[in-house]
Amino acid sequence: MTKNFEIYKCSVCGNVIEVSHSGEGTLTCCEMPMSLLDGKTTDGATEKHLPVVEIKDNKAFVTVGEVIHPMEEKHYISFIEVITPSNKIIKKKLNPNDEPKMHFCIKEKGEYIVREYCNLRGLWKTSIKA
Ligand SMILES: [Fe+2]
Q1: Separation of 115 CA from ligand 1 center, angstroms?
Q2: Domain 7-37: which topology?
Q3: How far is CA 71 from the centre of its chain?
Q4: 9-35, pLDDT tens digit by residue?
Q5: Has domain 51-129 been given CATH number 2.60.40.730?
Q6: Cα of 37 to ligand 1 centre, how many Å?
Q7: pTM for the whole thing?
Q8: Of 71, 75, 113, 117, which has the most beta carbons under 10 Å away?
Q9: Residue 109 alpha carbon to ligand 1 centre in Å
Q10: If you measure from the C-alpha of residue 43 to the centroid of ligand 1, how many angstroms do you get, rounded to a whole number?
């Protein structure tokens, strides 16, 4: 059984998918069950992955990370996304050479979950309260 917003990865081919509508089945790819990515919340590495969120007035500015993450062909942030308090998704797809940044408007009170996916180091998340 999957849950909305879960992110799964195929350990064989590297496909990454996000659940838009949950179902009973087990997700498979390359004839193997896909792995649920948890979203790491602490980063001891010198290369920083946790999204940093700055709020100014009613806007939130997200940067990956505390030290700007590389955006090279072999190592880059593939997307940044936000899950709002009312479960809307705001997502920015990124490519090598893009800046690993996005911003969004804070229109609701509550918890915003901010996630990013590094093609080498996986899923990372943080949250803010507004
Ligand atoms: Fe990385």
Answers
A1: 13
A2: Rubrerythrin, domain 2 (2.20.28)
A3: 15
A4: 999 999 999 999 999 999 999 999 999
A5: yes
A6: 15
A7: 0.94
A8: 117
A9: 31
A10: 11
Q: In what order do the strands lie in the sheet with 59-64?
A: 51-56, 59-64, 101-105
CA of 42 to the centre of ligand 1 (A): 13
CA 69 / ligand 1 centre spacing (Å): 6
CA distance 14 to 4: 20
| Each residue's pLDDT tens digit, 77-97 | 999 999 999 999 999 999 999
Rg of the chain over all Cα atoms, to the nearest angstrom? 15
* Ligand 1 centroid distance, CA of 124 (Å): 10
Backbone angles phi, psi at 44, to 5 degrees: -90, -10
Averaged pLDDT for residues 59-83: 97
Rounded to the nearest angstrom, the distance between the alpha carbon of 25 and the centre of ligand 1 is 31
